[in-house]
Amino acid sequence: MNLDKVFENNKNWIKDKLALSNDYFEELGKGQTPELLYIGCSDSRVTAEELMGAKPGEVFVHRNIANMVISIDLNAMSVVNYAVDHLKVQHVIVCGHYECGGVKAAMQSADLGILNPWLRNIRDVYRIHSKELNEIKDEAKKYNRLVELNVQEQCVNLIKTAAVQKASRERGLKVHGWVFDIHTGNLIDLKIDFDSILKNIMEIYHLD
């Protein structure tokens, strides 16, 4: 992409927004009150707000390779705490997508250098669910199922956090797992059972 074109596009975008409302940017500058925290993949084909039809200010977004929620990742944990404790979002969404390069890389045995410790977390998902995954003979279907299971496990990781547990008790915050089908454009709700997961892990992960 020609970078000069980016600035030209920006000017045209400003004109389009001001044509809708002369106060558009003044209103935008007043702050944000998003109800959703969206944790998605950095893949350039998956644009969070666009696929949901959301407007600026409606969704707080965090993206990384393969939409991971890792307890020692200070970037992700800072986003979760800020969104939950300070912005008071009502819903936290982990959204994966089919054809995820990060998940595909984790299924390979290649040494990928600095990516190894990151991808190990996805390999742990495979290990946890290896019985189910190894019974799937079609590699494409196995790959898609690992995408879904990875989303599920990242939702569990969210539910382990103190911020999410506290917000769940105090104001009914929920965690959701979605997958974006890159071939059809459909968002698929995996229907993560938040209450059941929370109940099952409380003995070990309960935080006051």
What does this structure look like?
With 208 residues, the protein is of the alpha/beta class. 52% of the residues lie in helices and 14% in strands. The chain has helices at residues 3-20, 24-28, 48-52, 74-86, 101-106, 116-128, 130-134, 139-159, 162-171, 194-205; strands at 36-41, 59-64, 91-97, 174-180, 187-189. A five-stranded mixed beta sheet has the order 2-1-3-4-5. α3 (48-52) links the parallel β1 (36-41) and β2. The longest helix has 21 residues, at 139-159. The protein is globular.
Highest CATH level, the class of the largest domain: Alpha Beta
Structural class: alpha/beta
The assigned CATH architecture of the largest domain is: 3-Layer(aba) Sandwich
CATH superfamily of the largest domain: Carbonic anhydrase
- Beta-strand segment tally: 5
Average pLDDT for all residues = 93
Distance between the termini: 50 Å
Order of helices and strands: HHEHEHEHHHHHEEH
Briefly characterize the structure:
The protein has helices spanning 3-20, 24-28, 48-52, 74-86, 101-106, 116-128, 130-134, 139-159, 162-171, 194-205; strands at 36-41, 59-64, 91-97, 174-180, 187-189. With 208 residues, it is of the alpha/beta class.
